Amino acid sequence: MSDYEPKILGFLCNWCSYAGADLAGTSRIHYPPNIRIIRVPCSGRVDPLLVVKAFERGADGVLVSGCHPGDCHYVQGNYYARRRFAVLRDLLDFIGIEGDRLRLEWVSAAEGQRFAQIVSDFTKRLKELGPRG
Amino acid sequence: MIEEIRAKAADLLRSGKAKCFIGYERASDGLTARPLFAYSEDDVERLVFDKTCAHNLARYLPDMKGQRVGILVKPCDSRSINLLIQEGQVKREEVYIVGVVCEGIHRASWGRPSQELESRCKYCVRHVPVVYDHLVGQPPSSEPQPPASIPEVEDLEKRPAGERLEFWKGLFNRCIRCNACRQICPSCYCPQCFSDQLDPLWTGIRIGLPQNWVWNIGRALHLAGRCVDCEECQRACPMKIPLAILNRKLGQKVRGLFGFEAGLDPEIPIPFATFRKDEDLR
Lengths: 133, 282
Known about the structure:
Distance between the termini of chain A: 14 Å
Order of helices and strands of chain B: HEEHEEHEEEHEHHHHHH
Radius of gyration of chain B: 19 Å
Radius of gyration of chain A: 14 Å
Largest sheet of chain B: 6 strands, mixed
Strand content of chain B: 5-15%
Oligomer: heterodimer
Order of helices and strands of chain A: EHEHEHEH
Number of helices of chain A: 4
Shape of chain A: globular
Number of strands of chain A: 4
Shape of chain B: globular
Number of strands of chain B: 8
Strand order of the largest sheet of chain A: 2-1-3-4
Largest interface: A-B, 26 and 38 residues
Strand content of chain A: 15-25%
Helix content of chain A: 40-55%
């Protein structure tokens, strides 16, 4: 399946990662168009069920991205997110959705390059994994 | 043993320390047990306790908020009370806990009690409740050792992801979404469950695989770090879906990551309600 293009759903926090993605765009950095972005107030806003729901609806991968630990606009949201997604990743893996299909990343508003890199790497990894069974 | 429980229950009701005593009585089939809510001393005579008493009676405590209640708990059920206290659903001073020393209960098959232990008892590590006001029975001299591994979980983990996916799809496909697992769960007390919400429509209305999949994963997720391993969900499931495997898997993960076990100490918040800044979870 060389022409397989994975669908990635991205939950980006408004304060850091969304601005980071914006910077990637305004800086004209190339990254794969596989990601569909949803802007959320904070990575702590992302209910693990939203991710489960995304997989149910056919997403091949889900990226949750927020401010670096210590930089959260709401002070502690990303710490909670970190705990939740560590457990969710393991559960998804256990029920047969490879843990690599869920990524939690920290991207600041200044890291456009890093955002592009993450999306490229993630897309590459999802192509290796192939379509979801 | 049962005389002591009855005497204690009668005493609680008489003295007004409890308005209601929750225990077990013989079910109408004459073989198994069912919950009994004793409001008067006459009801107390119906109390029983033996190896057929499977229910986790802590399930009823959140429904009786604001009342003084006496309750009979097995060691596994006692953890639920600690969890409910931690989560602010039960006030310690409103509950009088009669703990029983339990060395395992028997499985009922097609409504008939067998001589076989319930599967939850195979993983049991305590014969004495973690919290009680009055203890019935002699505590054993030593507690059982925790099992080194959980074979059901490990066998699955060894298989490739595709097989695991098919395994769970097959099981969730059986689900009829009767919600028995939720109704019987002592940790499921939300006034409105996410699966009952129509906006947002989390699970979907149809009884089909995708909807069942979301429901079962959502249920397991909401119990991560909160499940006390009473395995009532699995016992209640009419489609015999081994929900305890999922619960145990999550319990194991939470134990490994955060060193936390639900219901052992009412002072320690559940792992998802707290965090440590310096932890490395990736």
